[in-house]
């Protein structure tokens, strides 16, 4: 019970900080998340509200990473396992889903999609990170810069606004 309350408190604090940061003009930063052990950064300007996974209505004949549809604040939203669509895992383990969070896209992007992430890791600001040159010329368009934090951990930026342009992301119907 205490763990659930602590998670809710963390989620509330993150949501408040996201709102505070968004209200400041010209402030850049990221929402840091983890998926299948990978450290990822979502630009604050593109990330939306954070939710608990909750009840999902499964959609038949879809890819395993398309988890279903949820009612998020009165809006019908497709929920995608980010690690699954990125090819980091085939199926979402139940133990991971119980601890996961859903991050909606910013309403300004006009995309009714939310991403299930394994863990929230707080907020990151550019002054906390050091840009790392990427040697991968074949990186997809949604892959932003690579960053290293003070502890030496590498973080990959994911441009949420570019993710829906990827063919794999758009093809939710499973091959028969």
Describe this protein's structure:
This is CheW protein. It comes from Sphaerotilus natans subsp. natans DSM 6575. Residues 27-169 form the CheW-like domain. InterPro entries: CheW-like_dom_sf, CheW-lke_dom. With 176 residues, this protein is of the alpha+beta class. It has one domain (2-170): Beta Barrel (OB fold (Dihydrolipoamide Acetyltransferase, E2P)). It is 20% helix and 35% strand. It has four helices and eleven strands, in the order αβββββααββββββα. Strands 8-1-2-11-10-9 form a six-stranded mixed β-sheet, with helices on one face. A five-stranded mixed β-sheet has the order 3-6-7-5-4. A hairpin with a 2-residue loop joins β1 and β2. The longest helix is centred in the first third of the chain and has 22 residues, at 2-23. The protein starts with a helix and ends in a 6-residue tail after the last helix. The mean pLDDT is 87.
Global Rg: 16 Å
Q: Name the CATH superfamily classification.
A: CheA-289, Domain 4
How far apart are the first and last residues' alpha carbons, in Å?
43 Å
Q: How many distinct domains?
A: 1
CATH topology: OB fold (Dihydrolipoamide Acetyltransferase, E2P)
Profile the largest sheet.
Answer: 6 strands, mixed
Strand line-up of the largest beta sheet:
8-1-2-11-10-9
What CATH architecture label applies? Answer: Beta Barrel
Overall shape = globular
The fraction of residues in strands falls at 25-35%
- Which structural class do the helices and strands define? alpha+beta
Level-1 CATH class name: Mainly Beta
Low-confidence stretches: none
Short précis:
The protein is of the alpha+beta class and 176 residues long.
């Amino acid at each position: 019970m205490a763990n659930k309350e602590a998670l809710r408190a963390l989620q509330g604090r993150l949501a408040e900080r996201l709102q505070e940061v968004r209200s400041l003009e010209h402030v850049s930063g990221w929402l840091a998340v983890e998926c299948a052990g990978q450290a990822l950064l979502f630009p604050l300007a593109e990330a939306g509200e954070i939710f608990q996974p909750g009840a999902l209505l499964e959609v038949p004949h879809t890819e395993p990473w398309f988890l279903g549809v949820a009612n998020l604040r009165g809006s019908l939203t497709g929920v995608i396992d980010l690690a699954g669509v990125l090819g980091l895992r085939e199926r979402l383990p139940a133990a991971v889903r119980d601890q996961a969070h859903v991050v909606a896209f910013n309403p300004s992007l006009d995309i009714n999609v939310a991403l299930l992430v394994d863990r929230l890791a707080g907020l990151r600001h550019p002054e906390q990170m050091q840009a790392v040159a990427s040697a991968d010329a074949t990186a997809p368009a949604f892959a932003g810069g690579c960053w290293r934090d003070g502890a030496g951990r590498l973080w990959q930026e994911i441009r949420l606004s570019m993710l829906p342009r990827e063919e794999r992301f758009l093809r939710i119907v499973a091959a028969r």
